[in-house]
Amino acid sequence: MSIVLYRVDERLIHGQVVLGWGGELHPRRYIVVDDALADSEWEQDLYRLAVPDDTEVLFRGVAEAREALTEWAAQAIRTVLLTRDVSTMAALGSEGGLGGVEVNLGGIHHRPGRTEVRPYLFIGDEEREGVRSLVAGGVHVSGRDLPGGLRVDAEQILG
């Protein structure tokens, strides 16, 4: 499978993803699944500034990403797939679309109604519902900020 990381991170493409995870996984492509960003060329240009020049970046809405997911996974290009929130990843994985893969939660920050699981991971009712939906669809959910960081599993995340 060429999608080497499925990650939920509110900041999407940033240093921790490009240097931390990218340094370990060596992706040649980042795919951001986000309905708002898929329609915003100027915001896409800003995110493209964060990756090396020889790295491809695609921005797709959820519906388009669901249709392309199997094709992306079958391609030889090493890919990191990112969503801004758990509900978008859950929508991408509905109807078994992500069954068998591992989704990494990192960079979900404090907001009223969320509780701290780890310093980089705060979970509220919406995130819990999304995690439960992913797990029910056969997805392995874990939390970790960087490749060498402590991994927490879905049970610990849900409390």
UniProtKB/TrEMBL annotation:
One of its GO terms (molecular function) is transferase activity. Transmembrane segments: none annotated. Its main location: cytoplasm. SUPFAM superfamilies: PTS IIb component (SSF52728). Gene3D superfamilies: Phosphotransferase system, sorbose subfamily IIB component. The keyword Kinase applies. This is PTS sugar transporter subunit IIB. The lineage of its organism: Bacteria, Pseudomonadati, Gemmatimonadota, Longimicrobiia, Gaopeijiales.
